[in-house]
Amino acid sequence: MADAVKPDRLQCIEDAVSYALSHRIRIEILCLLNEAVYTASELASHTPWSLPVISYHLKEMLVAGSIEVAKIGKVRNVDQNFYRAVELPVVDDEQAESLPSEVKQEYAAVILQAIIAESLGALRAQKLNQPLVRMMWDWFNLGKRGRQELADEQLESWERIVEIAARDANRRAESGEAGKSVIAVMLGFERSNTSRSPASSTNRLSPREIG
Length: 211
What we know:
By secondary structure, the chain is mostly helical. The protein has two domains: about 1-130, Winged helix-like DNA-binding domain superfamily/Winged helix DNA-binding domain (Arc Repressor Mutant, subunit A, Orthogonal Bundle); about 130-210, no CATH class. About 50% of the residues lie in helices and about 10% in strands. The strands form two sheets. Strands 1-2 form a two-stranded antiparallel sheet. A two-stranded antiparallel sheet has the order 3-4. The radius of gyration is 20 Å and the shape is globular. Residues about 200-205 have low confidence and may be disordered.
């Protein structure tokens, strides 16, 4: 991937996400910080890159707002930053409605950054060609009622996924079975390109999926 605009020239959260996802090292850092809090040296120990290289990218990502400092702690009597992925409080639909548009945009940017980083990391690790992988996408022309029904279906599906994970955690606690990290994603949004007419949908491949 070609590198993006430097963080000190970034103008908005959209640019920050594009910057974070424009380099393999930053993608791997994001994936690691999605799961835990790390110092620069700990991140270097989990990757093939040197501490100076990791430190450089951490500094740039911090300036861009792509990551944040969870705390500053002592490591061998030296102050060190402990980094993490940007954390956001969970909000329901009613709470989301009351948020300013710029805050909603930040929520979307942070979530999308995590999704894309994990997806690109899995693609590079050849995890997307394994059994039980499910990848589906398409675009639909929906009226007001259809849009609401889709949103409701996605919310109900997500709640069932959370229940599945809880039941599985209980089973594994009893059996001692080790689990594997699996990404589940739910997206539903209006396309940026609205120039196509509904009739044009008959000319495309459907559905676009693997699994």
